[in-house]
Every structure is written in structure tokens, then in C-alpha cells.
Design a protein that fits this description.
The chain has one domain. Helix content is 63%, strand content 0%. The protein has three helices and no strands. The longest helix has 15 residues.
Length: 62
């Protein structure tokens, strides 16, 4: 039986910080404010979604 671990939703500021820290590690990648806002909105505060959307946008722009 799998046990669920509760994960609290992140605030928009926390998602934005997560994204900016990740994007800062990628040289030559510029992310617009509009793109960041769309990811924050789409992630709905869910850390896993924020990570996947950020990672995916980095791959598409890399």
C-alpha cells in the first residue's frame, strides 16, 4: 500500500523564486516576465507542476 505525503501549495512568489533560481543556472537563457507569469499561473502552486513546466520551458528554449 502506498502512503501519500501531503504537499502544500506554494505561493506565487515561491514558484517565481523556484523558477528564477533554476533559470539563473542556465547560461544564455533569457526568460520573459510574461513566460514566468504563465508558468506560475499554470502550476497552480503545485511544486511538481512548477518544476516540470520550468524544466520543459528550459528544454524548449535551450
Amino acid at each position: 500500500m502506498r502512503r501519500q505525503i501531503p504537499v502544500h501549495r506554494m505561493s506565487p512568489d515561491e514558484v517565481e523564486t523556484l523558477l528564477s533560481k533554476g533559470f539563473d543556472q542556465l547560461e544564455g537563457l533569457a526568460v520573459t516576465d510574461a513566460a514566468t507569469e504563465r508558468i506560475v499561473y499554470a502550476a497552480e502552486g503545485l511544486p511538481h507542476f512548477a518544476h516540470l513546466l520550468g524544466h520543459g520551458s528550459g528544454i524548449l528554449n535551450g
